[in-house]
Design brief:
Elements lengths: L14 H22 L11 H22 L4 H34 L6 H12 L20 H18 L7 H20 L11 H4 L1 H20 L1 H4 L10 H9 L8 H19 L6 H35 L5 H37 L7 H7 L8
Helix pairs in contact: 1-2, 1-10, 1-12, 1-13, 2-5, 2-8, 2-11, 2-14, 3-4, 3-5, 3-12, 3-13, 5-8, 6-8, 6-11, 8-11, 12-13
GO molecular function: acyltransferase activity
Protein name: Acyltransferase
InterPro entries: Acyl_transf_3_dom, Acyltransferase_3
Length: 382
Amino acid sequence: MASVASAAPKPAHLNTLDGLRGIAAVSVMAFHWHIEAGSSLFQHSRLAVDLFFLMSGFVLAYAYDARLKAGLSFWAFFIARLIRLYPMILIGIGFGAGWFALDWLITGEQTFSAPQFVTYLFMNLFMIPVVTWDQDMAMFPLNLVLWSLFFELVAYAAYGLVFARAKTRWLVPVIVVGAIGVTGWVVFNFGAAPTPPAGLGFLKQGFVADLSRISLSFFLGVMIFRGLPRLNAVPPIPAVFLPLICLLIFVQPAGILPWWACLFIVLIVFPYMLSSAIRENITGRYGAISKFLGDISYPLYVTHLPIMWAMRAVLHKLFPNLPIVWLGIIVLPGCVLVAYLMLRFYDQPVRHYLRHKFLSSGLMVRDKHNRLQKSQVGFDGN
């Protein structure tokens, strides 16, 4: 196993981190499936999104902190991030729209009227959320998981415009305010009395709660990157235990972990796991498995809900007497297979084409010397 905290060139992939990202994506899929099956397991997999945000902030700072400070333009940075995210966002919206059409054909029930469908399709394509005070409906009705990608894009913009070049101490008020909002979110979602008082519903599942989650975890990830040399004094968790800790947290049924334990996980456990994972970059067979999990994590996250709903509807029609939970033996591997096919035959080729197009157009020519510099930058982040 190789340490990534040395002065050697930075590896292109942090395999241990990739493995955690894959486990988090599978756990989110399991959470949604157990909701479909009426099971209470994996209810704490909602916290996996906070782990995603944390890792995203770290990886972005890892890749772009030095380059933006050295002169990479905001638009070159942001278009690169759109190239990374948007191809799968479009597929996720297409799968979602296809599912609602299939559902209408199978059940005869029309979830949206035609004007609603067209409106939501337009808004989803341009990543415009449907926002209400206490979020009584999904921000992205055609594919529910897109809410987190919307906030990722918001965080990218804030990072590229302000925080990449700002002193690290500027991150502190953002993280503190985010932590206050996240405290309300965990209290109202994991507390013994989860119904918020009148006027505070926005802290349970509204825009403010989600903005708090990205503000806390994403920018905490940026701060961990910049403070890694000081964190090296803290003994890391051995990489072999990190997947076990994830599963131990995510598999718990509703009501097992109190709200304060969930807050402790988001504020302390996840950052400690991140700082451990990035100091032990696993290689060999387990490194290859981790990289595979990391590669499929994003396509799986974006596509699993509409694929899951469609497969469940078709299989339940074919085998009406089979308990829904048993359909997961086919549905969950099916979601993983679709994610791999999307990665292999759509996402990677499209991103390769778009990167080639924009690089050859001269948009990122200014970044040539910065890309060389990237291979020489250590973890000081200064």
